[in-house]
């Protein structure tokens, strides 16, 4: 596919109390699960991290934040700068059930817009979304202006918001799991139980 996948692994995992991306689910680290789920579709995978040594085992291209400590927007900026593709899937490291098939659908919607952002149950998911490489400059501008939320960037660019109605090949339970974020210890326990039924 003519698109790259950018995994963001720069968060502090403060609510979880440990690095979410390295937690094991079904004997595989969460970050490995994400890589393996998207690899069949995205052969160009970029990991944004400020601790590259911890992730050498993944065998993927890595880059670090140019604006450290500035949150996911800085991670998006770094990933887009490092990408050689015009279209890029971005996925957070705390989403153990991401779907490459659903990501492909989002990429297909990115022709005439700058970004494709899912809205599930009325909630935006800018960290499992698609962005054009050109948005790196807009992200840097937002950061320099002190507008550090992903929403600030999306307010400035052409976005196609997609909902459950755009993902008719997936049932409600599948959608809920794909967009599940593992933030707290109980979330991790839930993820382990769900993974047993895969």
UniProtKB/TrEMBL annotation:
Pfam families: NTP_transf_3 (PF12804)
Source organism per UniProt: Neobacillus mesonae
PANTHER family per UniProt: MOLYBDENUM COFACTOR GUANYLYLTRANSFERASE (PTHR19136)
Reactions catalysed, as given in the entry: Mo-molybdopterin + GTP + H(+) = Mo-molybdopterin guanine dinucleotide + diphosphate
Full protein name: Probable molybdenum cofactor guanylyltransferase
Domain notes: The N-terminal domain determines nucleotide recognition and specific binding, while the C-terminal domain determines the specific binding to the target protein.
Cofactor(s) demanded: Mg(2+)
MobA-like NTP transferase domain: residues covered: 5-154
Annotated keywords: Cytoplasm, GTP-binding, Magnesium, Metal-binding, Molybdenum cofactor biosynthesis, Nucleotide-binding, Nucleotidyltransferase, Transferase
GO biological process, any: Mo-molybdopterin cofactor biosynthetic process
Family classification: Belongs to the MobA family.
Entry keyword Nucleotidyltransferase: yes
InterPro entries associated with the record: MobA-like_NTP_Trfase, Molybde_CF_guanTrfase, Nucleotide-diphossugar_trans
Record EC number: 2.7.7.77
Subcellular localization, as worded in the UniProt entry: Cytoplasm
